[in-house]
Amino acid sequence: MNVKRQTIQKLKGNHFRLTGQRRAVLNAIANTNEYFTPAAVHEKLREQHADISLVTVYRCLNILYDLGIICDMRTTGKGRSYGKCLTGRYALIVCNNCGKTMVYNGSGLNKLAQQIDTEIGFSVENKHITLNGLCPECRANKDKTGD
């Protein structure tokens, strides 16, 4: 069963109607692997669905978040950012300059958690961390301008 169909069944199973506006929001986020803000989803929908307000998008995304369909990535201080829920241990890597967000899920994260446990006896339970810095493009621009 595909993710979209599972999402629709989960909405209906929790007594939420699948309105045209909710369907439009689902379609807007269904095929993306990137992180998105409510404003970005609203902007994407405005051309074909002028009747959808930003408040409606926020409400729909909050429902999807409450049902565990999307996760709050809290990647920047610029408001909420959502993405598909990831499994396993991963790091969100966020550019301080442009806000671009990438995911790193290499084995180094498990080694880091084990090292923390060994060195200080702290059992890491969180599955993700956020690292901030400069993406390759912003780093190259900074190197060019000397800032």
Structure description:
- It is flat and about 50 Å long.
- Helix 2 packs across helix 3 (38-46) and helix 3 packs across helix 4 (54-66).
- Strand 3 (90-95) and strand 4 (101-104) form a beta hairpin.
- The model has no long low-confidence stretch (mean pLDDT 84).
- It has 6 helices and 5 strands, in the order ααααββββαβα.
- It folds into 2 domains: 3-82, Arc Repressor Mutant, subunit A (Orthogonal Bundle); 86-145, Ferric-uptake regulator, C-terminal dimerisarion domain (Dna Ligase, domain 1), CATH 3.30.1490.
- It has a 3-stranded mixed beta sheet, with no helix packed on it. A two-stranded antiparallel sheet has the order 1-2.
- With 147 residues, the protein is an alpha+beta fold.
The CATH superfamily of the largest domain is known as: Winged helix-like DNA-binding domain superfamily/Winged helix DNA-binding domain
CATH domain fold name of the largest domain = Arc Repressor Mutant, subunit A
Calculate the mean pLDDT score and round it.
84
Class from helix and strand fractions: alpha+beta
Oligomer state of the chains in this structure: single chain
* Cα end-to-end separation: 50 Å
Question: What global shape is seen?
Answer: flat
